[in-house]
Amino acid sequence: MRRRLIPWSYPLRSVLVRWPAAAMSALGIAMTIAVLCGVFALQAGFEGLMGETGSDQVVVYLRPGATSEGESGITLEKVRQFVNERPEIARDAAGVPLAAGETYLALFLHKADGGGLVNVPVRGVEPASLAVQGADLRIVEGRGIAFGRDEVIVGAPLSRRIAHCRVGDTLLVNVTPFTVVGLFEHPGAYRSEIWGDVERMAAALDRPVRQRVVARLKPGVDVAALTREMADHKQLASKVMTERAYFTSQTRVLGGVLGVLGSLLGGILGVAAVLGAANTMLAAVGARTREVGILRAIGYRRHAILLAFLVEAGLIGLVGGVVGGLIVWPLDGLETGTMNWNTFTESAFAFRVDADLLLTAVAIAVGLGLVGGLVPAWRAARLQPVEAMRRL
Question: At residue 353, does pLDDT exceed 80?
Fold first, then answer.
């Protein structure tokens, strides 16, 4: 009677017996997975930071056709009209509109480690800006700015990357010295910015207009309908987006570049890993030719031989995937920074290594092992029993 499947312990024992070659093959797969995970963890951290900024109940008004704040410009007269006349804007208990006109500009500032100059976003805000952000913005060191003075607060991660951004330092905005009075935390992209009083910032930057109006909506406002209305408004024509949608739109270029880079590196290293796995499995087949012949002679069919060698290749890939995941796991939460190619400004964020990424990485690693073991497994399955046992 012919047996159907080889015991599952057989490929495991084979891997253990030939562990040096299997370990080298698994290491090649692990390096591929580590690089791939590292790039995608970087992408996930950047996109997560931007995508988590703001609320769907907060909207941003920009100049028609503007793709970012840096391209926008709204006159002070129109800012006042937005704040005081638009019926969709919520008000606080005292009846004050929860809306503010803000300036925005990127300044060349020195890195704290002396590594050159980078573009850092500087934002001029009003008291209403803080009310719109609510509890999301927290002062973690020092105090908040006193409006009307040349003072700034700095995103805490940015303070570790940019020179003269710690509490008590003096930061030059063009030729105007501003005192850093506090550091703040924010769960989104604002943590990479410097904030000061909008009037003082506008004077220092010589910007007579505002780059955006940000406002909290009344409950139940239809944002899609508002967007259509404002696009054709005779006096206040503007581009309207929720704050969350706006910041998500700012990830497209860099997020796409990181995705392409990860795929390209993964593809190149993946080919090398597959060839390494194939070489290991071909050597295993050559060393076990007589063994395969005996298995065929005692009744195991070709598909059983094929499956046994594929399981062995999959085990090598599994080990490589786990090792690769362990290599990249310590990166989770590690802060870094890079230029946002939509705004050409420095963004501080952290690598994000989550369970989904690790599980996907392990699945890819097993797939690489199986692809590398497919041809050797097929070759082993095609061996004839008598011919295989004659080979030394």
Answer: yes
